[in-house]
Description:
Blueprint: H1 9-23, H2 25-48, H3 51-65, H4 71-85, H5 89-119, H6 121-136, H7 143-150, H8 154-178, H9 182-190, H10 195-206, H11 208-224, H12 226-229, H13 237-247, H14 250-272, H15 286-309, E1 317-322, H16 326-341, E2 345-350, H17 353-362, E3 367-373, H18 378-384, E4 388-405, E5 423-425, H19 432-443, E6 451-453, H20 457-469, E7 475-480, H21 484-487, E8 490-492, E9 504-511, H22 514-517, H23 519-527, H24 532-543, H25 548-558, H26 560-565
Parallel strand pairs: 1-2, 5-6, 5-7
Antiparallel strand pairs: 3-9, 4-7, 4-8, 4-9
Helix pairs in contact: 2-5, 2-15, 3-4, 3-15, 4-14, 5-6, 5-8, 5-11, 6-8, 7-8, 8-11, 11-14, 13-14, 13-20, 16-24, 16-25, 24-25
Amino acid sequence: MLNIPKLPLEDWVTAGVNWLTDHLSGLFNVMQHVGQAVMDGLTNGLTAIPMPLMIAGITLIAILTTPKKIGFPAFTFFGLAIVANQNLWEDLMSTLTLVIMASVISLVIGIPLGILTAKSPKTAAIVKPILDFMQTMPGFVYLIPAVAFFGIGVVPGVFASIIFALPPMVRMTDLGIRQVPVSLVEAADSFGSTTWQKLIKLELPSARNTILAGANQTIMLALSMVVTASMIGAPGLGRGVLSAVQHANIGLGFVNGLGLVILAIIIDRFTQKLTTQPGQKAETKPWKRWTILATVLVMIAGGAINVMTTQKATGQRVNLGYVEWDSEVASTNVLAESLRQHGYHVTMTPLDSAVLWQSVAKGQIDASVSAWLPYTNKVLYNKFKNDVDMLGPNLRGAKTGLVVPDYMAANSIADLSNQADKTITGIEPGAGEMASAQKTLDSYDNLKGWQLQGSSSGAMAIALDKAYKAKKDIVVTGWSPHWMFSKYHLKYLADPKETMGKGENIQTFTRKGLKQDNPKLGKVLDKFHWTKDDMESVMLAIQNGKSPKAAAADWLKSHKKLADSWYD
């Protein structure tokens, strides 16, 4: 409408983030290492407390702070017991660490900033628009600079959570200070109170409930970022929810989501107990206070005893990264389980494909067995090839393309006209296969008017299942090995223009210098290989209900000779 050239906002922001990354990398590295150490310590401390002791202790505190009411203590006990029963206790503690750190830092920054905003109109004029920006910008956007500054893990997750959760703390502190009755402030002035005395003895006590309400909102918002933070490697319950979404696993999503709900309600009820009615004082009988303190000390002592008596995990540490595709879940779990059986301490970190390559290039991930080359991951390979070490193929003869049920008449992409509502059902938007599919749409004249629908590998599989059972047309972005070729009668559409690529290999790649740092591990990673049939058997076992770890263990047991050859 206005004849104004497009402002290069995208270029400006990218240049700004790149400048910060280049010139402040030392500061970011220190913050990352210190933050990681602190949060690892907190998580280890929480997980060291014996689970039954912590459940009993938190339930007792709930009873002491909720006199004559049994609902909240009962919910606390049974809720935490359910989380423990579902083997999600460590994930719960990791999530609690993220929430605690994000909330504490938000409080430390937010309360002073809120006071300053209430006292200074100039500060308010600057801060409030920034808070509006922080609150309305989608949380996913904060992941981009978080990864650029701090890499992957819980530290960038906390960084993104702070940005998202900070505004309510500032706003509610500002509101609480402004709502202090003018008459009380004037009375304090008339008695000669200093600004500091008025703040400490009048304004903050009067604004207490409002500030605590802001703290409650901040904690809840930090908790809401758990799933988002898991996209960049933050551990915890959010990782299970994200995996469930990507695999369209309703049960897994519900169980991990239920854990988040239980944690949120418990935190919310405890923080609400800090507020009081106007004119009342928060009173807790001395014996209750001493009992609560004794309970906390007993839990800490239990954790300390557990640390001293528990044998630490031994073995060299290996961090394997992977993409939440069914094929990569299978291969990474098989390799990880094999390494564990040979004494390695293995961590598995699911990441988006682009973040995975960047993390290996930065040395935060040791290795991955999920490089689809030369086509699917071509762009990422060209970008990071000088910063990673490429090893040999771990699976040959992989293939990607457009896939349809065999009852459809079309045998080639050129045969498509108006089938499947002119829609190709795809997977994650950032996947290389999606870029190939878009290139296909742009290259074939008969596909004008068609659209590429991004989703996830799990959602694509569900859409395929529904269409297949109803004998309806559907076109999906497919790849093999994949369990869907064992479950359904499918076919690849011929690709005369080869826009979806030819045959591919899946290769292993590692951080720079891994083979020099650990020649034995490097040799194992280089020799790891199997076949399409092997991978599809593990994928199908997982699809039929086995856990990835159990399916991997079963395959290793029945293919011992091949697995042993990786270590020869």
